[in-house]
Amino acid sequence: MTSNNIQLDNNGRLKHFLTTEGLNKNLLLNILDHAESFAGVGDRAVKKVPLLRGKTIVNLFFEPSTRTRTTFELAAKRLSADVLNINIAQSATSKGESLQDTLRTLEAMHCDMFVVRHGSSGAAHFMAKHVSPRIRIINAGDGNHAHPTQAMLDMFTIRHHKKDFSRLKVAIVGDIMHSRVARSEIHALTTLGVNEVRVIAPLTLLPARVETLGVHVFHELEAGLEDVDVVIMLRLQRERMRSALLPSEQEYFHNYGLTEKRLQVAKDDAIVMHPGPINRGVEIDTHVADGERSVILQQVSHGIAVRMAVMAMSMGSLVDKQEEKT
Ligand code: NCD
Q1: What is the sign, positive or negative, of the torsion defined by CA atoms of 182, 201, 230, 168?
Q2: Which of 181, 296, 299, 307 to mutate to test the pocket of ligand 1 (most atoms within 8 A of CB)?
Q3: What angle do CA 13, 183, 87 make, to 5 degrees?
Q4: What is the mean pLDDT of residues 49-77?
Q5: Do the domain assignments include residue 89?
Q6: What's 243's domain CATH number?
Q7: Which of 116-120, 223-227, 259-263, 283-287 comes out lowest in average pLDDT?
């Protein structure tokens, strides 16, 4: 039994969604396939399906967020659930008991699902372990540990443009050390069987022994971008840096900023992604961010469909796509 099994019910179906680590390829593909069928809901005159009617979902955000919180809210509403948004300033909370107290209070209100963002790694696991068995937990980002729905919306975007994962070379560039997105993406990409995952960063922004995750490490941007199909840029997450890990933003841009010129070494049809928020002129040049290879805004739209899929699956409201086929 791995600790990740807490995410699955006895039949191996998604119960809580805490991390992409340890989930099998079929389950990840199921999320993408369900998301595919939800992708059109936003284009309908009535942007709703009744799958979670009568359910109450609480967005519990202990850290600031714009796109993640709003796309979770839209996703829940498009599934016809009732949504409650609770933003809790990080300074007002501490780990352990206070989190448990928050949980008990919300449980008493008969809510069905908590979407949790928290500054501490492991907060969502903690909640899944301690919550009443009828409640589902979705991790919307915990510390620098995991951000599984962001990873899956990125996988959805990659599949949308590239179809077959097995041939792809994907580069993740920048502050890998503090990035929960990078960790969740690396697990998802390797499980989905991409040809090569590269991380490109200065030594100070790489976690120790990162290559044990199955990635190739590059310290030079041009060398790492050579021939890649997908470039995923990351923000410098200064709020998580405990000391100065970089000389200056100008110097960082000089060495690691993605410009049109540098992008030329990637494949001609390479796409550029970024989970947002983007810092123009720090990790990415404004022409690239708004350029024709950028799919950054598509990532945001895809986030709604992917979050609908994950929420509906964990509430047990969907039949496995794989089962449907047999
Ligand atoms: C990411 C996050 O919060 O981890 N953003 C997001 O969810 N859209 C990445 C970041 O903050 O840089």
Answers
A1: negative
A2: 181
A3: 80
A4: 95
A5: yes
A6: 3.40.50.1370
A7: 116-120
Q: Is the pLDDT of residue 199 over 80?
A: yes
The tokens for 312 are 């509906």
- Place 297 in a pLDDT band, splitting at 50, 70 and 90: very high
Residues 130-174: tens digit of each pLDDT: 999 999 999 999 999 999 999 999 999 999 999 999 999 999 999
Nearest CA to ligand 1 atom 3: 141
235 touches ligand 1 (CB under 6 Å): yes
**Is ligand 1 within 6 A of the CB of residue 147?**
yes
Choice from 68, 71, 274 to test ligand 1 binding pocket (greatest atom count within 8 A of CB)? 68
Residue 324 has pLDDT above 70, yes or no: no
**Beta strands per DSSP E along 135-248:** 136-142, 169-173, 196-200, 216-218, 230-233
Q: Is the CB of 159 under 6 A from ligand 1?
A: no
Q: Tell me, yes or no, whether 8 lies in a domain.
A: no
> What is the average per-residue pLDDT within 2-12?
80
Clarify whether residues 180 and 246 are in a common domain: yes
- Domain containing residue 115: 25-145+301-320
Helix (H, G, I), strand (E, B) or coil at 3: helix
For residue 275, report the distance from its CA to the centre of ligand 1, in Å: 6
DSSP readout, 18-69?
--STT--HHHHHHHHHHHHHHTTGGGSSS----TTTT-EEEEEESS--SHHH
Mean pLDDT over 99-106 rounds to 83
Mutate to test the pocket of ligand 1, among 90, 147, 176, 299 (most ligand atoms within 8 A of CB): 147
Q: Ligand 1, residue 235: give the atom nearest the CA.
A: 12
Q: Is the pLDDT of residue 211 over 50?
A: yes
Its pTM stands at 0.94
Expressed in percent and rounded to 5, the helix, strand and coil fractions of the chain are: 45, 15, 40
**Banded pLDDT at 284 (limits 50, 70, 90):** very high
How do beta strands 136-142 and 196-200 pair? Answer: unpaired
- Within a domain: residue 252? yes
